[in-house]
Design a protein that fits this description.
Blueprint: H1 16-25, E1 32-37, E2 40-54, E3 57-62, E4 65-70, H2 75-84, E5 93-97, E6 117-131, E7 134-138, H3 142-155, H4 175-187, E8 193-201, H5 208-216, E9 223-229, E10 232-238, E11 241-245, E12 250-253, E13 256-261, H6 266-276, H7 280-300, E14 307-317, E15 320-330, H8 337-344, E16 352-353, H9 355-365, E17 375-379, E18 385-389, E19 393-397, E20 400-409, H10 415-426
Helix pairs in contact: 1-3, 1-5, 2-8, 4-10, 7-8
Length: 436
């Protein structure tokens, strides 16, 4: 078995998203998590170990041996300890964290169904990296390595799949009424902001890898992902980080709040941008999100290192454009990456302000979210971490497939406009769905 990166026979991959989709769709390598960041795509597959956490039990699997134990305390620390106990030998861990993971840190665990999966992280046997360097394979047998190169070469000659666009205008969830209820609670002084979402169920099974390929060609995400893990499939085009902690212990988050449609033509897009940067409701929504993110980073960073940059820049993410800022600080010596994740999770742009009251409103007014508005994570043995926000995504399990999108609700919100915003966001994925 190979234990180091092998140089590629393929010097250049013109369409890395097609390569990742083709590897995933080949069904050759078991469960997988694909993660795109900074011009590099990683396909991590065939787990040799995993850590799965639900509301009552921690399950650890390593090379065929499994344990299951009750747990207590904070989920982030439980996961940190479980991963630290495994002989990773330089391997990364990949997986996902559900929205309900936040309930323990916020003292709201009684809101969570005991059967809810909070996190599922796996350690792959095989890693395939694609970037400007070509293709590098780690952990595969020589035969598998040859097959991987052949599959990637084949992927570059296959025509893109045909989409079956989804109608997102119907609403079976009473979204406008829920927004109106939240506006009333905000104006009564219960909280300042909440993100409410709606689910759109699909009438047919979906080819998730093919949907990823087609959707990635029409999106401009900060990160993207594709996964099949623990009975859940998902693909998404994440507009922002929840948190990253790099090798130099720099903590970063990128709150996006304030939205208008994008991709409707230059003149329309410019008019929407001008409206976005001058709309008092959008500016207030963004400013309070940045203020909250700054305070959260300050709590885990060395004193005086928290700072905001690119304040209220406009970033284009597929079918929408957002107001965006970056908040950074250097992680304090007595804090870990998991401490930073726990403090910043869930993203303020996917929960509410104040966060505890916002999450309480989500638990009351939204259905259980699972992976939606949670995070896909990549963690190094040394503790570096990226957790990307799960929005602009499609999901599928044994019961069916669905899309989901939300909008930020503040005192000035109008239910019809917030519904329209969910349609704009669903437009990042709905036109590119591929039937199984």
């Amino acid at each position: 078995m190979s234990t180091t990166d092998e140089c590629s026979r393929v010097e250049y991959v013109a369409d890395p998203a097609a390569a990742m989709s083709w590897l995933a769709g080949s069904d050759r390598f078991g469960e997988y998590v694909m993660y795109e960041r900074a011009g590099e795509w990683t396909f991590a597959a065939d787990p040799i170990g995993s850590v799965e956490l639900d509301a009552t039990e921690l399950r650890v699997l390593w090379e065929g041996t499994s344990t299951a134990d009750a747990w207590a305390g904070r989920p982030a620390r439980v996961l940190d300890r479980a991963l630290a106990a495994l002989p990773l030998a330089g391997r990364h861990a990949y997986g996902w964290i559900g929205f309900e993971f936040c309930a323990w840190a916020l003292g709201m665990s009684d809101h969570v169904d005991p059967r809810t999966t909070l996190a599922h992280v796996m350690i792959p046997r095989i890693e395939v990296r694609v970037g400007a360097f070509g293709v590098r394979v780690r952990g595969a047998t020589p035969t598998e390595t040859g097959d991987i190169h052949d599959l990637i070469a084949q992927s570059q000659t296959v025509e893109p799949p045909k989409p079956h666009p989804v109608d997102v205008r119907a609403d079976s969830t009473g979204y406008r009424n829920r927004v109106a209820e939240a506006v009333a609670e905000i104006n009564a002084g219960r909280y300042q902001k909440v993100i409410l979402s709606r689910r759109v169920d699909l009438a047919h099974p979906v080819n998730i890898p093919a949907t990823y390929r087609l959707g990635r060609a029409h999106n401009t995400p900060a990160r993207s992902f594709l996964l099949r893990l623990g009975g859940l499939e998902a693909a998404g085009f994440s507009p922002e980080l929840v948190v990253s902690v790099d090798e130099e212990r720099m903590v970063t988050t990128e709150p996006l709040a304030g939205t208008r449609a994008f991709g409707l033509g230059d003149a329309v897009d410019r008019a929407a941008r001008a409206e976005l940067i001058t709309d008092p409701k959008e500016i207030v929504e963004h400013a309070i999100s940045v203020y909250t993110a700054f305070g959260e980073i300050a709590e885990v960073a060395e004193r005086g290192t928290a700072a905001v940059s690119d304040f209220m820049a406009v970033r284009e993410r597929g079918s929408v454009q957002h107001l965006a800022s970056t908040v950074r600080g250097r992680l304090a010596a007595d804090r870990s990456s998991w401490d930073a994740l726990e403090r910043l999770f869930p993203s303020v742009t996917a929960s509410g302000i104040p966060k505890r009251e916002g999450v309480d409103s989500v638990f009351r007014l939204d259905a259980a979210r699972g992976l939606y508005s949670g995070a896909v994570v990549r963690v190094s043995e040394a503790g570096a971490m990226e957790a990307t926000l799960v929005l602009r995504s499609i999901f599928q399990d044994a019961e069916g497939a669905w899309l989901r999108a939300g909008a930020g609700v503040v005192g000035q919100s109008r239910p019809e406009r917030e519904f329209e915003e969910t349609c704009e966001k669903l437009g990042s994925v709905a036109p590119y769905v591929v039937r199984a």
